[in-house]
Design a protein that fits this description.
Elements lengths: L18 E2 L4 H8 L16 H21 L3 E4 L7 H6 L4 H22 L6 E7 L14 H17 L4 E7 L2 H13 L4 E5 L13 H12 L3 E5 L3 H10 L8 E6 L9 H7 L4 H14 L5 E4 L5 H12 L1
Parallel strand pairs: 1-8, 2-3, 3-4, 4-5, 5-6, 6-7, 7-8
């Protein structure tokens, strides 16, 4: 397993220890930059020169934040949809996905080289997304099915020498367990990021504490995150069952809008959630999770929100 170096996850949010990562790549590209992303998939952009140029411009904003604040950078690949079910909808066969996942990690590695002189530490994470709709609890894969399904993507990340893989917007414990086991089979460090609704619970109705506890018991990842929820929703999850389990949460990538998943699309399109309100809500969350060491955004956020959050941390 590739381990994070000193100053990576698990260290207190002090000095320059916290990694900067990006915001809501899909919503940013679609709503701010006018990029067409069928099925909310950004990964096809790595296949063309124009697409790579768009991605390079997108990631450069977060590299600038890391350089300006003296913090390390987590570069996360645009591969949330690069799995068989979603790939098929976009015309990508299994071999095509192997190519595009490899190319995505190669692209992120190139970005790391481009920014190496201005940023001391940069890590490349391969992004994994759920097999089904991450905003519905109706389809729950078994852990064995998830192992087989996600392993080819994780193998591509490992072959490309990604530092770790991070599974985002996960709703089911079983899928999380299968992903962790598949990453371990590929000797790859791995993190799991659950999403919660406005009540602080997973869409399946489980508490975040229960979900993290069960995954840790069955197949512990290197760390957990929470994404695609407003900071207040994450605070609701923490406040429902405060305890030592919260120290397993090493990062958050929160939404700008204070809306539940049923209303999230409309809220994002309206542009709900200013950078200042996002930063303020995130500062309140940091009072509950002062040890966080990976900080970014999700739906409706961009480099302005992440920069505002970092300014709040610095003051």
């Amino acid at each position: 397993m590739r381990a994070m170096d000193h100053g990576g996850v698990g260290h207190p949010l002090i000095g320059s220890d916290a990694f900067v990562t990006d915001g809501g790549i899909e919503t940013d590209l679609m709503l701010r930059r006018g990029v067409d992303l069928p099925h909310f998939a950004a990964f096809p952009l790595v296949e063309t020169a124009a697409g790579r140029s768009t991605l390079r411009e997108y990631y450069s904003g977060y590299a600038a934040i890391a350089a300006a604040t003296g913090r390390p950078l987590m570069l996360e690949s645009p591969t949330w949809r690069a799995n068989p079910d979603w790939g098929l909808l976009l015309g990508y066969a299994v071999d095509d996905l192997a190519r595009v996942n490899s190319r995505a990690i190669e692209f992120m590695t190139d970005l790391r080289r481009e920014h190496a002189d201005s940023i001391g530490r940069i890590r490349v994470s391969g992004t994994v997304g759920p097999r089904h709709d991450g905003y519905s609890a109706e389809q729950a894969p078994t852990s064995d099915d998830a192992f087989d399904y996600h392993r080819p993507q994780l193998a591509a990340f490992a072959a490309g020498h990604a530092d770790l893989a991070t599974a985002y917007t996960i709703t089911h414990v079983e899928e999380a367990v299968g992903i962790v086991r598949a990453a371990r089979a590929e000797h790859l460090a791995v993190a799991v990021s659950f999403t919660v609704d406005s009540d602080g619970r997973l869409l399946s109705g489980r508490s975040l504490a229960d979900a993290i506890g069960e995954v840790d018991e069955l197949a512990a990842p290197d760390h957990f995150l929470v994404n695609c929820a407003h900071p207040r929703h994450i605070r609701a999850a923490i406040g429902a069952e405060p305890g030592a389990w919260t120290r397993r949460i090493a990062g958050t990538r929160a939404n700008a809008a204070d809306a539940g998943h049923a209303d999230l699309d409309e809220a994002v399109e309206r542009g709900d959630g200013t950078p200042e309100s996002f930063a303020s809500a995130q500062a309140e969350l940091l009072a509950d999770l002062p040890h966080l060491s990976i900080l970014g955004g999700c739906c409706g956020t961009d480099e302005r929100h992440v920069a505002a959050m970092m300014r709040t941390i610095e003051t």
